[in-house]
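Follow-up to my post from last week.
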Amino acid sequence: MTQSASLQRLRGSTLLLLGGLVLLILVAGGAGFALSRDRAYNQLVIHTLEVQEVATATLGAVVDAEAAQRGYLLTGEPGFVPQVDRARRDAAALLSRLEALVADNPAQAAAARSLGPRLRERFAVFDQTFALMAADRRGDAIGIVRQGRGTELMRLLRADIARIIAVEEQLLHARRAAAERSALALLALTVAGLVLAALLTLFAIRSLTARTREADAARATVQELNVGLEATVAERTADLRLANDEIQRFAYIVSHDLRSPLVNIMGFTSELQAVQRDLSGFVAAVPPDTAGLDAARTAAAEDFPEALGFIHASTAKMDRLINAILALSRQGRRVLDPEQIDLTALAEGIGDTVRHQLEEGEATLTVEPMPTIVTDRVALEQVVANLVENALKYTAAGRPAAVRISATERPGFVDISVADNGRGIDTRDHERVFDLFRRSGAQDRPGEGIGLANVRATIRRLGGTVTLKSELGNGATFVIALPKVLPATISQKDAA
Amino acid sequence: MKGTQNPVTIVMVEDDAGHARLIEKNVRRAGVCNEIVHLENGGAALSYLFEPAVRDNGPVLILLDLNLPDMSGVDILARIKEDERLRRSPVIVLTTTDDKREIQRCYDLGANVYITKPVDYDQFANAIRQLGLFLSVMQVPESAA
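User reply:
Got it. Predicted complex:
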């Protein structure tokens, strides 16, 4: 699986989760809306009940007045008169309250307003009968009642109020139905929203689970590859080591076998030199006038010694080179013995061994505080000593050598640097100087070009690298990067 | 004093004819006139040494090179030192190898002297001449037969 596909999937599941969240918010909003709607509906119910109650009470006031009239007519007691007045006031107050309650509904308001004249008329009829009673005209008063105008008005009032109540009832029904419908719709919406949110969440979880599983699988694969890689590296390293061992053995055997013929060349050259000495003694003793004496004399005194001298010098050089190869291959075969080494002490020890040389050339060697390291002491000592000797050997004209040994640490490694102010090394030769038998600059110092080759081979063996920073004429800095602890694979191999 | 009159045979196992000649020359220069038998490979050396006439007729002095074409001189040394008769024969290892482990091994196997052939001829000649002087004075066990 590619990384972009996995990212897309992650984005997808995030979107799903976001969608679910939005739906949940919508559902919560709907529930809030439904609650406020419910409250409004409750208010309306209260309103309807109030209207009905006030309307009924208005009618009740008129009925009270009618009862008072009836009492007055029967008993003739004027004490009933104030009851009617109270009823009139009550009715007026109730009616104005009713009008206020139904003001929002034009039809109901009109119905309420039309109640006023009827009420006034009805009370006017009461007043009429009461006036007649006050004048002791009881018969006329009963006559008015008999006329039935009062009863008629009463019937109309009852009908009007009943209608108002009925309309209010109808309104309530309609509103309840609407409220129920919206509540139902909301419920449906809520359920749908919740189901959808649940589904989205489920999808998101599934997608995330799948992703997690993929990630786990990928991690397992990476781990597997890592193990495989380690095995491959170990295998290759073993191969390289075998090849290296073979080269070491090869170098050893070759240099060894080259020595044998060299012994002969040198031996018989020396024998020839002895013969040549006898010969020149003989030639010197020959009488001067002998034929061909000049040629023989030249041969004995010049040609022989010259040729033999060249053979001798060349074989001597060849011997040194072979010894160098031998030493190098022997160094490669030496068993490494890692131990804790205080670099500062090691460098100071090297300083002591070159003390005489330092004093002679007015040179200085500065050793900065350095950390400890676990590696092979002999090998490291040899390398640092070699670099210090080079620094003291290849000085710039007219400038006493100043050598500085320091070290910096980085994770797993220590970089030991040996810096000098000497003649420096041409950039072109930076790689070449590490090759066996190769040297750089003016060939005015003794040497075979072995030291740095040895340094590089040794440092490689210790699991490190050596690098060179230098400019012609401006000194050179050799930096040895060594593992803080010599890897066990290196020292174990040598123990085996 | 027996000195140069010592009848002990010197057996030189050396594959390089030049080396053999140089060794012989310098041994002779030191005044050693014992018979020198030159054998050029390991097989020839072993068959010569294990010939009854040689093996039973008392010790010989063996100059042994380690780098032989057919076998290592170390093996010859081991065979000599394992043999109940030959083991009393002094063995002088004279070779180009100066490997410390090789030297130790030879002494462990019973080599009497180990000499590295110096490439520098003066040193070489000197070493061989001194070896010759040494041979002229050294005592070899009497023949057991």
